[in-house]
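Standup notes, structure subgroup. Blocker cleared on the iron/sulfur cluster input:
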Amino acid sequence: MNLLPGEPEEPPSCQTATTLLAKPHLRISSQLPAQSLGGLSARLERFPVGPLTRAFRKRYFPEVELAEWNDWRWQARRRIRTLAELERIFMLSDDERDAVIRHEGSLPLGITPYYASLMSRHDALEPLRRTHVPVGTEYVKTPGEADDPLGEDGHSVVPGLVHRYPDRVLFLTTGFCSTYCRYCTRSRMVGEPGGDYSFSRPQWEQALDYIAEHTEVRDVLLSGGDPLTLSDERLDYLLGRLRAIKHVEFVRLGTKVPVVLPMRITRSLIKVLKKHTPVWMSLHFTHPAELTPEVTEATTRLADAGIPLGSQTVLLKDINDSVETLKSLYRGLLMRRVRPYYLYQCDPITGSSHFRTSVDKGLEIMQGLRGHTTGYAVPTFVIDAPGGGGKIPLLPDYVVGREGDDLILRNFEGKTYRYTDPDGTVGADRALSAGAL
Ligand code: SF4
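Run returned:
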């Protein structure tokens, strides 16, 4: 593999060098076919820098040249991972400080300098900061919560491959993320992989063999961790192997990288993705504050390369749980050619009660979006059913009832309308009140 001086052999790891040496199964990139898809030009390519981020860099990283700041490997290596690094930038509350000190195991602290530049230094309640800086409630387990609420481990057919739906699989490619969201559904396995979550080369091969042997699998979702933190070479290898399996029609990547590490969307990465077209992408957005010039550049590069882009957003209490916030996010995404796809009710992960809203809140938001803004800007609101039941869509109820052959419906403004539906039964079980018509 062609490496530049100082460039890590691995995608920047959340582990220390000592840990990596002690776990050779984690060092898989050097075993994969080496193709020089990156290089100096990719490292030095231009990327816009938004005003907030520019001021942040000058204040907290004055020694760092713009080209280095825009190098995704530098961003990943310099992630904020310790209390000292966090306190150099943020005025922490006592609760935040205690929670960081107390933390051990998976889902470590991790924030790219770029993403930190979008957060408030003084306000612990600022939305983006709340999603990434731990607080004490993270250690409180409430009823209904579980480490693996979606039952993914129970549906793993080989380590790292979840086969829950008839024709599609979830391929967990890595345990590494460039930032760690405190509400992560896979908090049990990201950041400090081990055991079944080792994401080793043999594990990849087992998963690929399983997919090749199961002709019913036509759809593969690459996730993790974040697959876009893999090197270009690894991604090229993985996508090439999947594309060589005749019955695999549809390949998607689930990623937060374009949002938290947008400079990762290099020209060389785009070449890899185009080589294996069609590849779809689901981007994990949370809040309109993420819609920066950097993110616009990243999504423009992806969309220009013909990669269909959808967004997935988790509904989070006091972070994005209002019509205005999500409307602003979704409209901004449409302008960047990203189609809002799913709005998730927050999964009951252990220690996530402070992030969860009621389901009523989600329905109220859907009611406030549908009809009030462009239909393309309205995602599907879903609950991923605990225990592995899959995604269950939820909609505000627009059926008022039935009168004879007429179905009585309510529109987005609350006005009622009749639709003649002589063969139908929908709404027949509802008693119509006098005021309903
Ligand atoms: S980027 Fe995704 S996988 Fe990584 S911590 Fe956030 S939610 Fe979890």
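Discussed briefly. Confidence is low (pLDDT under 50) at residues 1-43.
Next: hand off to the docking folks.
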